[in-house]
Amino acid sequence: MSDCIVKILPADPFCRVPVWVLQDAKTFLETHLRCDFVEMEANDTPVFVDCGANLERISCPLCGAEIDFAWWGEVMDSASENAFAVLDAETPCCQKKVSLNDLNYDFPCGFACCFVSIFNPEQDVDDKLIGAVRDIWGVNVRVVKAHL
Fold first, then answer.
1. What is the DSSP letter of 11?
2. How many beta carbons lie within 10 A of that of residue 110, not counting itself?
3. Residue 116, strand partner residues
4. What is the pTM assigned to this prediction?
5. What is the pLDDT of residues 57-67, one digit of tens each?
6. Nearest to 101, CA basis, from 145, 146, 46
7. Are 62 and 96 in contact (CB under 8 A)?
8. Sign of CA dihedral 69, 79, 89, 142
9. What are the backbone angles phi and psi of residue 73, rounded to the nearest 5°?
10. E strands present in the chain
11. CA 97: distance to chain centroid?
12. What is the chain's percent helix, strand, coil content, to nearest 5?
């Protein structure tokens, strides 16, 4: 049986929400949503927040060209050497600088210093719940849905 994990993260990959504010969002979700459990994670530098088996393709946000997974793997390896402190890369298609966070991931993925993960929610994690987390944190958020 596969797991479904809904991850809510700041839209800005370098945003660091204070741990007590992350905990407020975790507590809110635990009291307003039926799920296996909710976890929170906080790091000094961004980590890649992936969609698991859902990732089908990646494309350039500037020209729309599909990006080869081999190229992406190489730039991810290079960025990881510096703990993802710099996310900029030159695209292979249009040779322009773009953040790895801004690539068009299908299904959505991103980078974050902090996030909450909702494991196997029994109901839809709707815009109202996501908006509440955004309001608690006071920053714009993005959602990553993973299947493992």
1. S
2. 27
3. 8, 40
4. 0.94
5. 999 999 999 99
6. 46
7. yes
8. positive
9. -60, -40
10. 4-10, 37-49, 57-59, 66-67, 88-90, 97-99, 104-106, 110-119, 141-147
11. 20
12. 25, 35, 40
Residue with tokens 């608690």: 136
109-to-1, 7, 19, 45 alpha-carbon distances in Å? 22, 10, 22, 16
Place of tokens 């909450």: 116
What is the Cα–Cα distance from 1 to 64, expressed in whole angstroms? 35
The identity of residue 134, as a single letter, is R
Average pLDDT over residues 114-129: 96
Cα angle at 8 between 100 and 6, to 5 degrees?
105
User: What CA–CA distance (Å, rounded) separates 42 from 112?
Assistant: 9
Closest CA to 114 of 38, 47, 20: 47
The whole-number average pLDDT for the span 104-132 is 96
Contact 98, 63 (CB under 8 A): no
What tokens were used for 106?
A: 């299908």
Number of helices and strands in the chain (H, E): 3, 9
Average pLDDT, integer, range 29-44:
97
Q: Which pLDDT belongs to residue 2?
A: 81
